[in-house]
Write a structure and sequence with these properties.
This protein is α/β, with parallel strands linked by helices. 36% of the residues lie in helices and 15% in strands. A seven-stranded mixed sheet has the order 7-6-12-13-14-11-15, sandwiched between helices. Strands 9-2-1-10-16 form a five-stranded parallel sheet, covered by helices on one side. Strands 3-4 form a two-stranded antiparallel sheet. The two termini are 23 Å apart. It binds flavin-adenine dinucleotide (FAD).
Length: 471
């Protein structure tokens, strides 16, 4: 018999299980797939010897995670690799703007926008120790209200509004827009500046790093640590109904509302069920993984130093792409987020060969094949790219949801993170449900999308307090 059962072994499910096991609970994690990890997984998607990240590739918030900082993950084989530059953003004239690990180096290269970058992104970097609890946690009384207010003044704005007001150079505006577009919202929406500021600051606070060997290594380290605490993980064990589980005092679901309703709908009060039914999912993703015979031949040489490359040219082009996906249209020139891990981690491909990972945003549940448009975008800034392709794997939004039911319509954020749904993910109760002992611990709770485990941490803390009387 178990004290607690966790459904789903994504980074949040495993983190919840670790918190419970640390408190002495006997805990098991049940995972539907044959391999644990959810959004932190790797596989040979193209050719033997080429290790691709099936979901997450770049992990600033994993390094910045206040919970994971306390875990001995390095002792379980997790080794972070820092690319020479965090983000490269190429332009049609063959130049590029770069976000470096060093704030000062980045500022120096931004010329007349350097001061504005310091006052916006730099302000978050400087204040990160006072902001991290608010950014990477649920809504609570702030410990540093003045700093939070200073951050909020910029963060609540739209990315397009802040970039245009703060920066005078189109190149700096484009750099900020590319980072903010990770938020999967049109860039004229409130709060998109907050995504740009927080993720931009992570370039300098934690680094946009990658685990040696791929994202699966994060999962392996979390699983190993859980096992060392006496926890268990059972893969290939899909839960089809909460009522079919063995008895346990607490059940924590690493699920977004739609799959949760499927397995627990009957036991939830009607009003709460309706709240979950109203939860909104956002745009989807079309993903491509490439096996390459050579590094990507960027025209802007600086992009060869970057772990991540944002392909979309100017702010207005990126904004148009994001608005199109949001409004149900396909962008002719989609904004492409690309990572090139083997430039820094040769262990993931045969000698001299490479993998690359990329995706663009598309309308929710779109069935369109965006491969040609995505590759045209890469080719635009890296002529000869197509000649390097040995093999490719593509995933439509439907494929993404089929692999993980949390990602409804291919929404990799497990729900829209706009101002209406930011503080009430997935309802005002956040991790709790009206059913005693039943909790939600997925990225559909605060602080939301990303590989950081903080949703699982806070959900488990609440379960420990309410069910086990441990604060
Ligand atoms: C294509 C893509 C790219 C991404 N890129 C990045 C990135 O670069 N950096 C980053 O930080 N984040 C990235 N993310 C987001 C990140 O992967 C997620 O935010 C994170 O994995 C959420 O973790 P989670 O634990 O909440 O849930 P998930 O990772 O979604 O895990 C949920 C688990 O529950 C399992 N499950 C579902 N239903 C059941 C059931 N009935 N029974 C048993 N098990 C079940 C699923 O199989 C899955 O393993 C990306 C996601 C995708 C899809």
């Amino acid at each position: 018999m178990f004290d607690a059962i966790v459904i789903g072994s994504g980074p949040n499910g495993l983190s919840a299980a670790i918190v419970l096991a640390q408190a002495g609970c006997k805990v098991v994690v049940l995972e539907a797939n044959q391999t644990p990890g959810g959004g932190a997984s790797s596989a040979e998607l193209t050719l033997p010897g080429f290790v691709h990240d099936t979901c997450s590739a770049i992990h600033p918030f994993a390094i910045a995670s206040p919970f994971w900082r306390t875990l001995p993950l390095a002792a379980h084989g997790l080794k972070w690799i820092e690319p020479s530059a965090m983000v490269g953003h190429p332009f049609d004239d063959g130049s590029a703007v770069m976000a470096e690990r060093s704030l000062e180096t980045t500022i120096a290269a931004l010329g007349r926008d350097g001061g504005a970058y310091r006052r916006t992104v730099g302000m978050v970097v400087q204040n990160w120790p006072r902001l991290e609890r608010a950014v990477l946690g649920p809504l609570t009384l702030p410990r540093h209200p003045l700093v939070l207010a200073q951050f909020g003044r910029h963060a609540l704005r739209s990315a397009a509004g802040l970039a245009t007001a703060a920066f005078s150079d189109e190149r700096t505006r484009a750099l900020f827009a590319g980072i903010a577009a990770h938020g999967m919202l049109p860039l004229d929406r409130a709060l998109t500046a907050g995504v740009g500021l927080a993720l931009g600051a992570m370039c300098h606070v934690a680094g946009w790093q990658m685990p040696r060997g791929g994202a699966q290594r994060i999962t392996t380290a979390l699983v190993q640590h859980l096992l060392s605490l006496g926890g268990e993980v059972v893969a290939g064990s899909k839960v089809t109904g909460i009522d079919k589980l063995p008895p346990a005092r607490a059940v924590l679901c690493d699920l977004s509302p739609r799959p949760l309703l499927r397995i627990a709908g009957d036991m939830l009060p009607a009003a709460y069920r309706r709240q979950l039914e109203r939860y909104r999912y956002g745009m989807g993703v079309f993903k491509v993984d490439w096996a390459l015979s050579a590094p990507i031949p960027w025209r802007a040489g600086a992009c060869r130093r970057a772990g991540t490359v944002h392909i979309g040219g100017t702010l207005s082009e990126i904004a148009a792409s994001e608005t199109a996906a949001w409004e149900g249209r396909l962008a002719e020139r989609p904004f492409v987020l690309l990572s090139q891990p083997t430039l820094f981690d040769p262990s993931r491909a045969p000698v001299g060969q490479h993998v690359a990972w990329g995706y663009c945003h598309v309308p929710r549940a779109s069935t369109a094949d965006m491969l040609d448009r995505v590759e045209r975008q890469v080719e635009r800034f890296a002529p000869g790219f197509r000649d390097c392709i040995l093999a490719r794997s593509t995933l439509t939004p439907a494929d993404i949801e089929a692999r993980n039911p949390n990602l409804v319509g291919g929404d990799i954020a497990a729900g829209v993170t706009d101002i209406r749904q930011f503080f009430t993910r997935p309802t005002w109760r956040n991790y709790s449900t009206p059913v005693k002992g039943l909790y939600i611990c997925s990225a559909s709770t605060p602080p939301g999308v990303g590989v950081h485990g903080m949703c699982g941490y806070y959900a488990a803390k609440r379960a420990l307090k309410e069910v086990f009387g441990v604060s």
